[in-house]
């Protein structure tokens, strides 16, 4: 199965970006963009239309929460699905992320099945 959805993974760890990208590729999502933090993410998004944003929380320059709040404040990203993938697993952290505008949440380390389930759900597949 191949999909034409465009997904961006925003994470300061190039290893994590590679893991997410490889997992998505195996699931049939071959259009995956990358950014190393929120500032870079905004830059990539200004030049590309994406169907799903996958973002880390802890990043230099602009962290994931600020990134999500910045996106949600813009009309064009009010509805774009956002999945947060992070090591912050405390219940209050998850609530904070959801309140900031994140649609769903994956705690690292995750299995390919977990990522697939959340991605499919957010893309309506
Ligand atoms: Mg990080």
**Series of H and E elements:** EHEHEHEHEH
The main sheet orders its strands as 2-1-3-4-5
Helical residue percent?
A: 40-55%
Using the CA coordinates, give the radius of gyration: 13 Å
Kindly estimate the percentage of residues that lie in beta strands according to DSSP. Answer: 15-25%
Word description of this protein:
This is Two-component system chemotaxis response regulator CheY. InterPro entries: Bact_response_regulator, CheY-like_superfamily, Sig_transdc_resp-reg_receiver. One of its GO terms (biological process) is phosphorelay signal transduction system. With 125 residues, the protein is α/β, with parallel strands linked by helices. It has one domain: 3-Layer(aba) Sandwich (Rossmann fold), CATH 3.40.50. The chain is 43% helix and 22% strand. The chain contains five helices and five strands. The protein has a five-stranded parallel β-sheet, with helices on both faces. Strand 4, helix 4 and strand 5 form a beta-alpha-beta unit. The radius of gyration is 13 Å and the shape is globular. The relative contact order is 0.18. Magnesium ion (MG) binds next to loops.
Considering the chains and any ligands shown, give keywords for the structure:
single chain, alpha/beta, Rossmann fold, 5 helices, 5 strands, 43% helix, globular, binds magnesium ion, Bact_response_regulator, Two-component system chemotaxis response regulator CheY, CheY-like_superfamily, phosphoprotein
Give a short summary of the structure.
This protein has 125 residues and is of the alpha/beta class. The chain contains five helices and five strands, in the order E-H-E-H-E-H-E-H-E-H.
